[in-house]
Each structure stands twice: as C-alpha cells, then as structure tokens.
Design brief:
Length: about 575
Amino acid sequence: MSNILTGIPASAGIAIGKAFSLEAPDLSVEKKTDVDIDQEIDAFDKALETSKGELEKIKEKTKQDLGDEHAEIFSAHLLVLSDPEFVDTVRNKVKNENVNASFALKEISDQFVTMFESMDNEYMKERAADIRDVSTRVLAHVLGRPIPSLVEIDEEVVIVADDLTPSDTAQLNKQFVQGFVTNIGGRTSHSAIMARSMEIPAVVGTKSVTSDADKGVTVIVDGLEGSVIIDPSDEEIASYRAKQEKHEEQKREWAKLVHEPSKTKDGELVELVANIGTPNDLEGVKNNGAEGVGLYRTEFLYMGRDDFPTEDEQYEAYKKVIEEMDGKPVVIRTLDIGGDKELPYLDLPEEMNPFLGFRAIRLCLEKDDMFRTQLRALLRASSYGNLKIMFPMIATLDEFRQAKAILEEEKERLVADGVNVSDDIEVGIMVEIPSTAVMAKQFAKEVDFFSIGTNDLIQYTMAADRMNEQVSYLYQPYNPAILNLVKMVIDASHAEGKWTGMCGEMAGDEVAIPLLLGLGLDEFSMSATSVLPARSQIVNLTKEETKAVAEKALTLNTAEEVKQLVDETFLNN
C-alpha cells in the first residue's frame, strides 16, 4: 500500500522514478592528540585545494547551465575557503592544541555554523549553510571519504535526501534526475530556486522521506500540490502519468503565447516583464516572451568578488542588457545592498536589525563615490536603448531628491565631456516602505514611475519577518491592508499621468493577478518562467470583472476571505 507524504511544493511538475538515496558518507571524527602537526596541516591544505578545484568546476557548469546569478553561490563558497578567519583558525587549532586536522576542522566549522545560524539576519543564516556545505566537502577529503557524485547517475531517478546543498543541485543531470524530495528546506532555499530554474519538479520539507522511501522504490513527486507518493499502485502511477501529461500540455499551450500581447479578454493591455540578476538571464527573458525587464538587480555585479566593480565593468553589463532588449523597457535598480545581502569588502557595521538599517539608498547616499560610479555607468549605457532607473528603499521625498540630484550632476558632467547620454530616462522608485505608499500622492508629482516591492512592503506593513517560520503566517499578500496600500500607489500615479509596476513575488501569483489587474496595475514583473502562465491567465480575464472583485476585496476583513473570493470567482471554474 502506498505511503503519501506532504511537503512544500518547491518546483512545479510531476516526476516519477526510482528513489536514489543521497546518503552522506560517514564523516564522524575522533579527537587525536600528539599528532604530526606538519602532516595534519598538509592534509588539510591538500583537502582545501582539492575542494577549490571541485567548486571551480561546479561553478563553471552552473554558469553554463543556469547563468551567473546561480554561479555566484559557488563564488561565496570559494571565498569561505580563502577566508583567513576560517582556514587559519583551523590551522592554529592543529598547531596550538596538537590535534588532528579533521577534529579541528569539525570543531571550528561547527562553531561558525552555530554562530551564523543564531544571528537574526537571513544573509548570515544562508552563510551558515554555505559554511556547512563547504566544510563537509573539505572534511570528506581530509578523511579520504569523498562525497557521492550525482553526475554519474545514468538512469531515471528521484533524488531522496535530508537536504540538497547548492553544489548537489548544480550537479543534477536533467536527463536522468526526474525530481527530488527532501526532509527539510523551503521555497526560498538555494536548491529550490535552482530547481525552478532547471525545471526539475521538487517537494521539500517532508520531514521523513529518507526514512520512508527505501532505495529503488518507485516515488511520485507532485511539485504542483506538494505531495509525495511512495510505492504507488499501478492506478496511482497511471493517474499521475495523466496529470504529468496534462501539465506538459499546459506548458505547450503557454508556449503558444510567447509572441502574443498581454491583453485581457476585453482588450485591456498590460506589460508582463521579467526580473533578472545578470545579463546571462536574458535568454530566459526572451524565451518566455517577456515584454521587457522590470527589475535588474545590480547587486549581483558586486557580489562574489574582492572589491567594487569598476565603472567600465558595470557599463558593459548594463549596455549588454539594454542593447539586447532592443528598445523594450529595462528598469535597472541601483545598488540594494544591506539587509539580507552584504559585501565582505564594504566593512559595514553589525546591526541589530539590518532590514531596518543602513542599506540600499541610505547606504548609497552615504557612500557617495560608489553611488556616482554606478550612476555614471548607467548614464553611459542609456543611449543604447530604453533605460529606466529605479532607486530602492526610498522612505522620504528628501532621499529621492538627493538621489536624483546626484544623478543630474553626473549627467551634466558626462554631457560636458562629450559623452552621449539619453534625454529620455525615466527615474522612479521602489515602493517597499509603508510611509512611501501613504505619501504616494506627493511622490507621484516628482517621480516618473513606481514599482511596488511587495516582498518588503508586506513584511514591513505586517511587522513580520517573512523568513521567520514562527511568524510566516503574517506574510499575507492578499491582506486587505496590503491591497489598500497598493491601490493608493496606483491611484496616485494615474492621477499624475504616471505608471505603476510591481516587482515582488506577488506580481506572478495566480490569486493576486486578478486583484492587481482590477486595481489598475500597469506592469507585472516576475521570474521569467512565470510570464507565460501569467499571460495565459490574463487573456481569460476581463478588466470589468476583475475591477468589481478588487473593489469588493478592499472591503473584506481577512486575507482568507480575499483568497476565497478570488478562488470562487476565477480559479475554481
């Protein structure tokens, strides 16, 4: 009889295959004293070099398969292996305590992981996972027990594991790996994000799949619903084969809309654009029929390196994106560092609450030289297409005015030097702070556009960290409080003849799309793979009906009531 587990749907699709148990080698260590110190340090150093070589190969493969943004994960891993604070501490423990390298490495890495995991900062918590992944690799080589290679899988399987590290996920061969299931994890983990990019069905957070699924048993992964069927009956396999074919047919139907306009059934046009992290993401933008770039996250240019990117490096990256989009709009966000994204070489002070601290535009206005370098690169690239510049984390009109004044100063200098700069650059802001939404009427008189960053706007409005599982129930995109703030922003922009977009996760949410359409949102920016499903939904909606539902939603009391209204009106037909 089949066993059904429930988890978190991390990557859409249906997978059926034999369970391949990804079992970590026995990396238990025992403390040894009175060792040959030189021999132990030599073993540690050789393991470091071997690990670096492996990570370089994984990084290059990831870059080719998934692009620079995902490859940057492994730049971070390589930085850990070159961090004196980490590697020298291991060496010093071997020398000072006369202990074996494997014991010293395990002790020090556990200390670092515990320290980072205890920090109230999502970036630091992710760094803990990086250290665990990297130190496990090095430890395996010190002990002479290499980690199993997923590259060598040569039959159709479903990976079953406690968790998948980024380096595990990067090695998955789509030809044979049909899907994966884990005990732990969430939708925002590196492995889940990479699975979605690779279009490998995945369910995470099942708690017990490794103990419930024996090696070789048939497993069905339902990445649409978040369920896992272990040892299914013939009838269940046939049912899920049909569901799999239906999903594939749905994808083929979506593909027919690649070159179609994003137009409602009653002729209302909106823009469906994509979020990107690097120029390498443009292939996905084009393949999925996006009508532009709604958010270019420039911080990836600054990450995974030892110093700031030069003006020329930035200019080439921006120029490539603007030029390749061939006149379609490209909204580039200025540097949004801080909060959950840090730069080792920036040497920022530790903060009690970095999400409410010295980050994004606040940092850029203080670090004037860094900001001006980026703005010059953007201005130089502007003549190659349709550039729009967006400032993040704007809380007051004064901040916007300061940022725009610096932009104008740099533009005047470039023009004076004979540099060609576009005269038609729209300058807007991200609306991610409630005070900005409340003051939208005043901002709308001075900005050219708004882009609502719902990921932060929701957590700031609800006073709930979206990464904190204990308060995750308060991360409510459909809450009437959020919808009313969104309406204020859209109405304010339209009153001044301006436009409003949205670049948070909510923009590609099938429940939110009818509401946003009804509220008058002009531009929806989302991951490239969400564009076609969103377009297929929009072409079957009418502006009149969505407007009526949105107006009713604004008067409801809870997010659950709003979701039920949308489900009953649009999704359960």
